Fold:
Amino acid sequence: MGRTPCCDSKGIKKGPWAPEEDKLLVDYVQANGPGNWRMLPKLAGLNRCGKSCRLRWTNYLRPDIKRGPFTPEEHNSILHLHAIVGNKWSMIAAQLPGRTDNEIKNYWNTHMKKQLRQDALAVAVAGEGAAAAQLARAATASSCPAARHMAQWETARLEAEARLSLFSSSATTVTSATASSSSSTEHAAPDIFLRLWNSEVGDSFRGAAVQQQGHGGPEACAAAAGVPAQQALPAELGGDDYSAASTYGTEAAADDDYQAFLDLAMEEFALLQGRLGAFSVFPQADVFADAPCSLFAPFE
DNA sequence: AATCGTTTCAACCGCGTTGGA
DNA sequence: ATCCAACGCGGTTGAAACGAT
Structure:
């Protein structure tokens, strides 16, 4: 089923908004409230599509929008939240009053990503061998949180790429009878696992699982995701070979562990949300006081 | 002063989700 | 159950601003 363009009619204006257009939009929304964006342009006397109006309002004209540079607290919050939820800009924006998802996304892509890369590079140049191995080592060993963070994401990405190539090359050898019903969900599981396992959430899980039930740790999580334990950090990234990846999805009995792991991740995020809401919007600055990375000292 | 390369960010695009008919 | 309009989101684009030569 195809989708019709939101505004394919000719004569609809695009591009930067003029002050008069802004005024029309603001006046209308203040009088009638946001909503029904499809009809809004006509009712407000604007020669724009509704989508454009909504975007202009939510990203620029809304009265509660906070302009100006990001504070160190906001910076650190973005860093932490991104480590947990990834590129869920709207979720991150929800924790930063007055900031839009678009603004945070732009800030991440232009400022933070660059710094993270530089920090990761600084770690990588210290060693030898494949860059991936260094990233993996950095992910677990670096004393620099920012470099660790970058390395974690990069490691997960490299692993996902490796698996993708494996899956595509071995797809013809998998019989439809065994693979068809569950393959998609079970292939997705390791990526979720890896992302979480390589994050601070994973750290929490490792600690909590060992303490509480004795069935946690890499083995349980790896089994839960249907991955041999060593592949939590695979060999060329510091562990085993990828040939064993064909065993993904064979450990159905570990669903409970996997779910528990995901639940823990959500609890972590909920906890963070609670902390932000109940006590402080931002993590304490002194948490990062001993971080040697430029990322934590971006503001002179 | 002119040119070129880089950075920034507002705006657009396309896809997924949702809810009502 | 199905269709589809409306909405929201994340990725991408492109023009303006800025800096270097």
Q: What stands out?
A: Chain A has 13 helices and no strands. Residues 72-281 of chain A form one domain.
